[in-house]
Input
Amino acid sequence: MSLQETKCPRCGKNTLVTDVESQEVFCSKCGMVINEKTNDTRPERSFSDSPVNKSHTGDKTSLMRHDRGLSTVINPLDKDSSGTPLSASMKSSLKRMRQWDNRSRVKSNDERNLQQALLELTKIKEKLSLPDAVAEKASYIYRKALEKKLIRGRSIVSLVAACLYTACRESETPRTLSEVATTIGIKRKEISATYRLIFRELDLKMPVVDSVSCIAKIASNAKVSEKAKRRAVKILKHAEKQNALAGKHPMGVAASALYIACINTQENQTQKDIADAAGITEVTIRNRCKSLREILDI
Output
């Protein structure tokens, strides 16, 4: 709190005080409120549970936390409101209160399961370099699966991986099932079975994966020039107009178009280089190239 030099209009005393918490200027003598919603000039603060948000009002609510970020946090600084250090007995009492507060947040088995699952979801999200929107969607799908009791008899990691892959499909983020399985270190078959269960029980509607969105990822892994990328997009657009991509694997079609574009731009890229960048086989590229060449009359 900081003293102001102006006088109170009611009592005429020089006792005006600014409360930075309520953002009010009032008289400490008679209690009259002079001004409301004063500007806060304090420096920004970062919260321990959020490395991004520095708002004075706390962090935003998020599905990435089991309590959605609405829990109460006991101040970790062992000081009172005036900044005076607390006594040893009071510090011990506050430490005990924090422990019980942390324990009281998670009451049921479902909440403990959700807390562990969201921790795994955060780790996998960072490994796959996924945006926050995809992780939020995955946590929402996991909560729905938990309500349906789909977790029984299945590992948390496999269900989290399946929810994350489902969120990638819904948001059209180019991540393959094999890529997710390799990153986590579990079998692709296990994630695939869990994904089919989620798709069936939650009655989800999956959009068709656009092969054009896969071009940037493959080109980045294979270090292909921007000219070849634009040429590959034109090839795919031309093939889409003739309905030649129906039923084809989007990653395979994108890799084949990029390989043909590299040949047209005279870039030194082999089928093996493009196949490794896309996570498919060279046979897939050769088969898709045949159909694309027929369409393009090459």
Q: What stands out?
A: Residues 109-128 form the longest helix (20 residues). The CA atoms of residues 215 and 254 lie 6 Å apart.
